[in-house]
Design goal:
This protein has about 240 residues and is an all-alpha fold. Strands 1-2 form a two-stranded antiparallel sheet. Helix 6 runs antiparallel to helix 7 and helix 8 runs antiparallel to helix 9.
Length: about 240
């Protein structure tokens, strides 16, 4: 199978973005073993899960390059959306460890129910009718269904709202390092939202570049490299 120029660029940028997200997510999650903070574990793994559609794109792209054929539609859609509710629940667990701890149980129950409903629909679609999820347009592009759009809307709203709340909490700190991390987080969530919304509607490489920058900013929002800290953080 020959890839068009646009398909090649979409696959390549999707692959690069996936690699960056995996590195960032695992690096943040690994800090749990050093600091013993569950939040880092939940947030790191949660961030990994928000890029699952791009993992499907990456694997399909690599499959075409190596074997000449994309991965089958079942595997593609399973990777793309099959585990999103689990990752979202982990993200909310991390969020509620930092904010709204007193409401953590009820919030997680709501997202568990919400996720179970969506997961049931996905499982039915995977084994009965894949068009409920969407239709593949070539090896790396997808026309998502209305059902998926209706799930993506609250998903994106959840991430941007929780992201702004986390950023705002950091920005209110008197500690300059924490405040700077809040600025990086704010940039990360704004760019992520813009990138994902456009990416859902249009399969264009520029959206992945926006998402790459978002993931790098997210990393700095949680783990500030010492050299950057010395340059940007000037304690009074």
């Amino acid at each position: 199978m020959d890839l068009t120029t646009n398909e090649f660029l979409n696959g390549l940028t999707g692959l690069i973005y996936a690699v960056i997200v995996i590195y960032v997510g695992l690096r943040i999650a690994s800090k749990y073993f050093k600091y013993k903070q569950k939040t880092l574990l939940y947030v790191g793994i949660g961030w990994l899960g928000f890029a699952t559609p791009h993992y499907a794109v990456s694997l399909s792209f690599l499959s075409v390059l190596i074997t000449g054929e994309p991965i089958n539609d079942f595997l593609y859609f399973l990777i793309a959306v099959g585990f999103v509710p689990i990752f979202l629940l982990l993200w909310m667990a991390g969020f509620t460890e930092l904010l709204y701890k007193n409401r953590q149980k009820i919030i997680l129950i709501i997202y568990t129910i919400f996720g179970a409903i969506f997961e049931s629909i996905i499982l039915y679609a995977l084994f009965r009718d894949l068009t409920i999820i969407g239709v593949k347009e070539g090896p790396v592009d997808t026309d998502w269904s209305t059902v998926i759009f209706l799930y993506f809307i609250p998903l994106i709203l959840t991430i941007i709202i929780t992201g702004f709340l986390l950023s705002n909490e950091s920005l209110k700190s008197d500690n300059l390092e924490v405040k700077l991390k809040g600025k990086f987080l704010l940039v990360a969530f704004i760019l992520w939202t813009i990138g994902e919304i456009i990416d859902i509607i249009l399969d264009v490489p520029i959206t992945r570049i926006t998402l790459m920058i978002s993931s790098i900013a997210f990393y700095f929002g949680w783990i500030m490299p010492e050299k950057m800290k010395k340059i940007l953080v000037k304690e009074k």
